[in-house]
């Protein structure tokens, strides 16, 4: 696949629906007018990867790290210049994973929080909707504070509702109780949050499905844009202006 063009490797399958949406985002953000102007990609749909939240809560992260490392090395052999992981919770291991591979791993958490800081400025209040694992480990809270933002997380009751949307709805392929989502949204609006980061790729799917407003910043969308930028591809003018 090497033809003087950068190759993006993708560790996908966490979950599969989110991975196909990530691929779609990359395509739709690219300022391309023929096949040859699109980004070369190698996508590993590793659907049997250990559950990220369960791994965090059990303290048993070795299996997850081994799976991510094996996939990263496979992508290295395929000629990947950068690696993207469209799964927020797995970023708990991004530092260890980077130590295990020569290929740069794009940090979705940093990219999403940079977008918020750029648009809303320092001191902005930022709601975070994510899995229990992402919330408990503080991935977004720490990055928001690092970039001068004020993170807010759901109440325990609303966090359970967010998890129902993610696991019982999107991952399970079952019906979504939109009231669950609205309860969490209402909390953030009551707390006068400037925006809410959709910090789970299943919630990225939810945002598309329900055509949510830009009040909800999609972390996976920012990963797609950052991937294109690093790989030297032109981003559509409208999408570039929105960044």
Automatic annotation (TrEMBL):
**Which Pfam family is one of those matched by this entry?**
Asp_Glu_race
SUPFAM superfamilies according to UniProt: Aspartate/glutamate racemase (SSF53681)
The keyword Ribosomal protein is assigned to this record = no
Write out the GO MF terms. Answer: amino-acid racemase activity
Q: Which InterPro entries match?
A: Asp/Glu/hydantoin_racemase, Asp/Glu_race, Asp_race
Q: Which UniProt keywords apply?
A: Isomerase
Q: Which residues form a coiled coil?
A: none
- State the family named in the UniProt similarity comment for this chain: Belongs to the aspartate/glutamate racemases family.
NCBIfam families documented for this protein: asp_race
What's this protein's name?
Aspartate/glutamate racemase family protein
Q: Which organism is it from?
A: Zhenpiania hominis
The uppermost taxa in this organism's lineage are:
Bacteria, Bacillati, Bacillota, Clostridia, Peptostreptococcales
């Amino acid at each position: 696949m090497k033809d003087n063009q950068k190759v993006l490797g993708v560790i996908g399958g966490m979950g599969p629906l989110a991975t196909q949406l990530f691929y779609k985002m990359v395509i739709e953000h690219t300022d391309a007018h023929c096949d040859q102007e699109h980004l070369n990609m190698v996508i590993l749909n590793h659907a049997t990867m250990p559950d990220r939240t369960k791994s965090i809560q059990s303290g048993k992260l070795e299996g997850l790290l081994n799976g991510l490392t094996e996939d990263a090395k496979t992508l290295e052999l395929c000629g990947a210049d950068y690696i993207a992981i469209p799964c927020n919770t797995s970023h708990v291991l991004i530092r260890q994973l980077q130590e295990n591979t020569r290929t740069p791993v794009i940090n979705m958490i940093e990219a999403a929080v940079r977008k918020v800081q750029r648009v809303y400025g320092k001191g902005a209040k930022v709601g975070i909707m994510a899995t229990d694992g992402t919330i408990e480990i503080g991935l977004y809270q720490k990055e928001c504070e690092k970039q001068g933002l004020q993170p807010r997380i759901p109440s325990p009751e609303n966090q359970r509702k967010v998890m129902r949307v993610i696991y019982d709805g999107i991952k399970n392929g079952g019906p979504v109780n939109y009231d669950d989502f609205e309860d969490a949204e209402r909390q953030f609006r009551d707390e006068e949050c400037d925006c809410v980061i959709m910090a789970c790729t299943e919630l990225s799917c939810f945002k598309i499905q329900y055509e949510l407003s830009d009040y909800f910043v999609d972390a996976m969308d920012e990963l797609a844009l950052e991937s294109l930028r690093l790989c030297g591809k032109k981003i559509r003018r409208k999408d570039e202006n929105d960044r």
